[in-house]
Amino acid sequence: MKVLIVGGGIAGTSLAILLARAGVDVELAELKPTWTALGSGITLQGNALRVLRDLGVWPRVEAEGYAFDSVGIQTPTGELLFESQDIKSGGPDLPASLGMYRPALCSVLVEAAENAGAELMLGRTVTSVDPVAFDDGTTGEYDLVIGADGIRSSVREMIGIDTRPQPVGMGAWRAHVPRPARVRRTELMYGGPCYIAGYCPTGEDSIYAYLVDKVTDQAVIPRERLAAMMRELARPYGGAWEEIKPTITDDAPINYTHFEWLLVDGPWNRGNVLLLGDALHACPPTLAQGAAQCLEDASVLAELLLESGTADQKLFDEFRDRRIDRIRTVVDTSLQIARWQMEPGPDADVPGAMARVAAMMTALP
Ligand SMILES: Cc1cc2nc3c(=O)[nH]c(=O)nc-3n(C[C@H](O)[C@H](O)[C@H](O)COP(=O)(O)OP(=O)(O)OC[C@H]3O[C@@H](n4cnc5c(N)ncnc54)[C@H](O)[C@@H]3O)c2cc1C
Fold this sequence. Notes:
Elements: E1 2-6, H1 10-20, E2 25-30, E3 41-45, H2 46-54, H3 58-64, E4 66-68, E5 70-74, E6 80-85, E7 97-101, H4 102-116, E8 119-122, E9 126-129, E10 132-134, E11 139-140, E12 144-147, H5 154-158, E13 166-178, E14 186-189, E15 196-203, E16 206-214, H6 226-234, H7 241-244, E17 254-263, E18 269-270, E19 273-275, E20 281-282, H8 290-308, H9 313-342, H10 350-361
Parallel strand pairs: 1-2, 1-12, 2-8, 5-14, 12-19
Antiparallel strand pairs: 3-7, 4-7, 5-6, 9-10, 10-11, 13-16, 13-17, 14-15, 15-16, 17-20, 18-19
């Protein structure tokens, strides 16, 4: 089988590893000219770690990341209100959660894809998928084309699926900064001026700290103003934020993102072109399950493809049937938690919703 993967994010590189190491001829076209990944930290839940272990990269992820098994909910001044022992959704021999520097995860996956024998083409995209034509004028023939090109997928557009990302009404400020010694797990502060003030350790020496607030009316915030704006939003918060705030310096790596969501409801393929990962489904990171679902997509699709050896409509339908309920639960619950933040009410039960989803994720995808 000859497979083309368009997009070298978490979904695309994971699928490339699983297929290439089983002897499938895999080419991957990534639009960016280098692998330098943007972003700060990422929280990987147990079910994501289970797939990373299957990919053979768990020893490096474990060494480079920071594992923990509980989450704290705090007041804006840093008093602990509630401690939740997290469900180990990847099984008892993996931690419940692990924080990692996102570019480090990207390097681990890219290196593993190369070692597995996938042909990685940087600075390359497709101008058409049926037949396949690349932007350098060359063409190719493939048994299967995967659109793993993220939430604004061009492949999705090329095959005429008109689902588009929808705004959630929230935006997040994220900074990758040194770890105060007392930060040993994710802690979330509710009830302050922002919807959420949180942080997650990403290694022995680092954390990502984030503030989730209503969307700013500025479409693009100039790079040089990001730190000052984040410091101002963080000003009322206490606890570990007292140590975090001075490290949000003007030259600290900070980014601002609007939250969006998306779920392709109908078929996920057209002919032999299939979507994967955020190109199919995306949610606000209120459950930290987006990348986990991308990893599970890659794992299930690779299993089905390697079993059947044929990429046909039966396989595409089976893939969708195996994935849709789980993904819909993650998208709906992530949106529900976001709504509870924006419009608090007596029925809001964020820890309960998180625990229900984590329990569901313990089952294999
Ligand atoms: C603020 C924020 C925080 C998040 N935090 C978490 C978290 O803590 N835990 C978690 O599990 N999930 C989290 N997520 C979700 C997670 O980041 C995504 O689900 C995941 O990264 C999607 O992976 P992907 O490979 O499908 O897409 P992407 O990561 O978007 O990768 C797509 C790749 O395709 C490339 N590409 C784009 N267009 C083309 C093209 N035309 N041709 C070729 N290549 C192309 C891009 O350059 C990119 O490399 C978060 C999301 C956001 C927005």
